[in-house]
Amino acid sequence: MIVPEVTEKVRISGIKLSSELVLLNLPDPDYSAFSISLLFHILNKNRINMPFVAVSSMGTGFSGSCCVSSQDIDRTRNIVDADDIINTKVQYIYGVGMVSVFPHQRSMKVLGLSLHAFTKEHLPLLGMASSISALTFITDYIRLDEVAASLAGCLNLPVNYTPLRDDLYSKKQED
Predict the structure, then answer these.
(1) Which residues make beta-bridge pairs with 175?
(2) Listed residues 64, 94, 124: the one ending a domain
(3) What is the pLDDT of residues 83-127, one digit of tens each?
(4) CA angle 78, 81, 84 (to 5 degrees)
(5) Is there a contact between 110 and 137 (Cβ–Cβ < 8 Å)?
(6) How far apart are CA 57 and CA 36, in angstroms?
(7) Is residue 3 part of a domain?
(8) Same-domain pairing of 84 and 118
(9) CA-to-CA distance for 22 and 50, rounded, in angstroms?
(10) Whole-prediction pTM value?
């Protein structure tokens, strides 16, 4: 497939790259919202941060995913494995990272150019979410720098811009 070159770039403020994460998927759209909310509830109850959460529905079924720090994965697996309702439903994808583009200002053009950046370099896209201020993409952790470079080629960043790196790890504090 031939991917056309970008002729007009949209200005953004920055790109943020995460530390290494693990993606947890509840992929079957026949699962109920209960299974997904249960997963999020037990992770939250056990003070496991989820920097990425996505839920979708088709008809009456739901599928969902979230990311946790690779540093939390042993504890996460123990907690999930101990729950009889979701322990066989969760799939784990190791070695992922998040790339956030901000602000996208509700611009479909930023979304299109970002997807173009993934396509033209054949970069894996494992998940995507949007908030008020950022577009967040899940990809292979070892390819985060390639994604950032491809995005920089499609979007207009400040001069001498370097992507922000989220290398800090902090445990959720007691309420």
Answers:
(1) none
(2) 94
(3) 998 888 899 999 999 999 987 666 788 899 999 999 999 999 999
(4) 145
(5) no
(6) 11
(7) no
(8) no
(9) 10
(10) 0.86
